[in-house]
Amino acid sequence: YLAGKGYVDGRYGTSLSETWRYYKKKLMNVYVPTMCFNVAVGVASFPDFFPQNWIALRQMLTFTYNGAPGVNGIGATWFVFTLMWFYLFTPLFCRAAIKIGSKRKIGCLLFLMMMGEAVYRLYAGYHRLDWYTMVYTTPLANIDMFFCGTCLAYLLKNGDFREAVTRFAQLMFVPCFFGYIVLACWMLAYNQHVGILQYVMPTGYLV
Q: Do residues 81 and 60 make contact, with C-beta atoms less than 8 angstroms apart?
């Protein structure tokens, strides 16, 4: 959402120089601090990690690190490298959204992304593809999670879409959302219906 809002609010333009300014900001504010953290943790706490796992460093430099191989602290930063792929395509996506213009069409695009990713996750579950590498950490299976927020930034522009939401829907949102989180935590804690939690419920969060 915030990635798209920067374009909606006019903080970034669609020219090549503005695109580079966007990339530079994300690199300096997100990628560089993460790499500094990983190097510091590696040197201070796990001095053998990088010498024995050069592939991890190579993956970090190419935004393909998914936490394996990993150690405490370093492995948890996989999501940053997945996020960098989405930052890479955000200017292109926002430029397309600006050209589309119509909120109805952007809403249709949002729906198609959600349905497309839902089908992919169900396909992965049905064919027993590795959940961690093919669903959880790969950018391919998380396109809707990122760009649906970007679409929402355009839908909320000028406030007209927000005003169209009824008071009833607003009141229902909070209990439904937190109830959904409680349900997910119960499934995870008691190992119940884990397949639904992994392959179906991500789409539910977006809905």
A: yes
